[in-house]
Amino acid sequence: MSSFFSRISSLSHKPSAPPMPDPTWQPSPSSSSSSSSSYAYPSSATTYGQYSSQGYYPSSASSSSPYSAGHGETFAPGTHPDTIRSFWMVDKDRSGFIDETELQFALSSVYGKFSLRTIRLLMFLFKNPNDSMRIGPKEFAALWSCLGQWRAIFEKFDKDRSGRIDSLELRDALYSLGYAIPPPVLQVLLSKYNNGNGRKVELDFDSFVECGMIIKGLTEKFKDKDSRRTGTATLSYDTFMSMIIPLIVS
User: Fold this and answer.
1) How would you classify residue 96: left for phi > 0, otherwise alpha for psi between -120 and 50, otherwise beta?
2) What is the pTM of this model?
3) Is the distance from CB of 163 to CB of 147 less than 8 angstroms?
4) What is the mean pLDDT of each run of 10 residues along the chain (250 residues)?
5) 249 to each of 114, 198, 215, how far by Cα in Å?
């Protein structure tokens, strides 16, 4: 694992394309594209993967909005109805927040089985700034949008429709998301999923998301310290450990 983290500063990145819209649905005329987006498109100067942590929070709707989830938490106007429906389906107590078990159920009902480790990584990366143990509508909408794009990418590179991708397909899939991973780093990542049976390592969607979220999380943490976007940063030991540990023990 040490070789993985030692290569982080050498990663190159390209801005990825914006998420693909759903051609079958349009937001209501009253919602604008600028206020309803739950993600941020990378600027021309961006040199890292998409989905910066600052880009996830759309402007709030009024408390009387049909997008309201209670306790002041709201979905942005224009949020896809399926996203709202999925949130309410698991928010049984109508608290306006869901925990990791509820998130696991919501995602597994659409995308197939998700491990608790992957769920905890998602909770960490999309966490509510006011409640580290639960996520609200804004975080859920951002997470749902991100997974929708990642699912489309996974299916694009799953050439044989086996529901699994190999190392080369993983490399290309991550690159299409904006992460150019050096081969030695990719091999360290893949070794996590090697069960020792001598067969070629392949990842299902759950493992793809887990693997990709580790890359995404480390990239965003590193980007926070690389303020001049040079691809290098100076970190103290404490800072380095606080960046790494949450992503490897989630």
Assistant:
1) left
2) 0.69
3) no
4) 42 37 42 34 39 35 44 80 93 92 93 91 88 90 94 94 93 92 90 83 94 91 90 91 83
5) 17, 27, 14
